[in-house]
Amino acid sequence: MSTATERMEVRVSPEDKTLFLEAARLSHESASKFVVRAARDAAREVVEREQTTTVPAAFFDAMIESLEEPAEPVEELSSAVRKHRSIVKKR
Predict the structure, then answer these.
(1) Is the full-model pTM beyond 0.85?
(2) Whole-number mean pLDDT of the chain?
(3) What is the DSSP string of the chain?
(4) What letters, b where the CB count within 10 A reaches 16 and e where it falls short, cover 55-87?
(5) Taking the domains of the chain in order of start, what are their residue ranges?
(6) What is the pLDDT of residue 1?
């Protein structure tokens, strides 16, 4: 882990400060280390939760199966490609 060189300041209620100090004492950590660790853990949890998509196994299996099947040709797209090829000449 990198050396802590940045500083953040927060305002907390007297009740929260008392709670944080007691939790730090019980954890045998300084208040600063306790608050930083707790905030880091919470931040990692939020980031992981927001960057992960969980779906039921049956949905996942159906999705993978559909991706493995060859696509059906779409006439409109095929027509557009033919038109493009007739307009744009190969060099």
Answers:
(1) no
(2) 93
(3) -------------HHHHHHHHHHHHHTTS-HHHHHHHHHHHHHHHHHHHHH-----HHHHHHHHHHHHSPPPP-HHHHHHHHHHHHHSPP-
(4) eeeeeeeeeeeeeeeeeeeeeeeeeeeeeeeee
(5) 10-70
(6) 66
Q: What is the pLDDT of residues 10-49, one digit of tens each?
A: 999 999 999 999 999 999 999 999 999 999 999 999 999 9
**Distance between CA atoms of residues 90 and 57, nearest Å:** 47
